[in-house]
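Q: Please design a sequence for this.
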């Protein structure tokens, strides 16, 4: 939805054609399975006073996760550090849909962020989960095994200073790992 706001709020998209390309896959959830591969984007305003034509394309919608990782491997693209740490999906580190293992891993990888989230829950007297606090969820889970300090540093860095293409590629721990997320 951040992209929607950006497209609607910037004059450079008016009187222009824009293609939004995203990577949702039908296999990820029953809701995503219903998405169209190609459709008008939510920010489209082709019939407005100042029209903007915005299309949305999901080129890998029908791909299984194995095909995605095979393509990444074929081109030896460096996986995001979060996948190397064990996360099976990469969006928000403190995802509202996070599993106990993800919360336990976040607490280990980025304790300050974890504390801030727990502090907000306490101050708002509301929890992210309907039944448990993030502290309770983290206590119920185990951090992902084998998290390397170098991957933690890369995940927390404000810049990406690693090679984009690797000489020696290996499937990251999260490739088929804990993939809690929206359904």
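A: Design:
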């Amino acid at each position: 939805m951040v992209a929607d706001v950006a497209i609607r709020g910037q004059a450079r998209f008016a009187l222009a054609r824009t293609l939004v390309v995203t990577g949702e896959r039908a296999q990820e959830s029953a809701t995503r399975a219903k998405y169209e591969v190609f459709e008008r984007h939510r920010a489209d305003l082709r019939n407005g006073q100042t029209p903007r034509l915005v299309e949305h394309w999901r080129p890998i919608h029908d791909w299984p996760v194995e095909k995605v990782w095979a393509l990444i491997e074929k081109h030896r693209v460096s996986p995001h550090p979060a996948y190397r740490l064990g996360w099976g999906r990469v969006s928000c580190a403190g995802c509202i849909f996070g599993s106990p293992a993800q919360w336990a891993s976040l607490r280990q990888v980025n304790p300050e962020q974890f504390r801030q989230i727990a502090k907000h829950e306490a101050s708002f007297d509301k929890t992210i989960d309907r039944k448990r606090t993030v502290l309770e969820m983290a206590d119920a889970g185990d951090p992902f095994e084998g998290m390397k300090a170098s991957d933690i540093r890369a995940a927390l860095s404000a810049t990406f200073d690693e090679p984009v293409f690797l000489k020696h590629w290996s499937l990251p721990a999260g490739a088929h790992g804990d993939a809690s997320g929206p359904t």
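Q: Thanks. Anything notable?
A: The longest helix spans residues 111-124. The chain has a mean pLDDT of 94.
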